[in-house]
Amino acid sequence: MIYELNINKQTYQIEADADTPLLWVLRDILGLTDTKFGCGAGLCGACTVHIDGMAQRACLTPISEVTDAEILTLAGILETETGKKLQQAWNDLDVVQCGYCQPGQIMSAAALLEETGKPSDQDISNSMAGNICRCGTYDRIRQAIHHAASIELPHTMEPAK
Ligand code: FES
Ligand code: FES
Q1: What is the pLDDT of residues 19-44, one digit of tens each?
Q2: Whether residue 46 has its Cβ less than 6 Å from ligand 1
Q3: Ligand 1: does its nearest atom lie under 6 Å from the Cβ of 83?
Q4: What is the chain's mean pLDDT, rounded?
Q5: Tell me: the pLDDT tens digits for 49-74?
Q6: Strands 70-72 and 54-57: what pairing?
Q7: Hey, which of 133, 140, 141 would you mutate to test ligand 2's pocket, going by the most ligand atoms within 8 Å of its Cβ?
């Protein structure tokens, strides 16, 4: 069957079975490899994307459920103000080790910051609990989320008329 998907504000038409996981569509059909395959079973968070603003597991999401949804991957979130703050914070605190889990970590962190401007440690623990990092970067991720929440991005001035 043909499905139309809205991913990072672009429309894609793909042919696949209704129960094909979104993660397979992103990586294997569309070549959008910024979303990572970890466990394929909803256990690690590597495949986290935003579906209508909510952090969701792409490996557990059949494409037939997201045809009317706005889907954002890491590439899409990095175009947003929240994504830019997180990218800066991740760089400032040198969060990344091997990097494999980090797209999913940033997607969960972005959903948290968009819901809660200044999250507490408990908010961070609750929101990030499903994202596993085998390199153990958890403390830096926590610090980077607090840091991102305090970043003020320079705003582009309107040209004088
Ligand atoms: S690949 Fe989806 S949760 Fe691990
Ligand atoms: S940075 Fe290596 S798995 Fe998280």
Answers
A1: 999 999 999 999 999 999 999 999 99
A2: yes
A3: no
A4: 96
A5: 999 999 999 999 999 999 999 999 99
A6: unpaired
A7: 133
What string of H, E and C letters represents the secondary structure of the chain? CEEEEEECCEEEEEECCCCCEHHHHHHHHCCCCCCCCCCCCCCCCCCEEEECCEEEEHHHCEHHHCCCCEEECHHHHCCCHHHHHHHHHHHHCCCCCCCCCHHHHHHHHHHHHHHCCCCCHHHHHHHHCCCCCCCCCHHHHHHHHHHHHHCCCCCCCCCCC
Centre of ligand 2 to C-alpha 155, Å, is 32
Q: Which tokens hold the place of 118?
A: 């200044």
pTM assigned to the model: 0.94
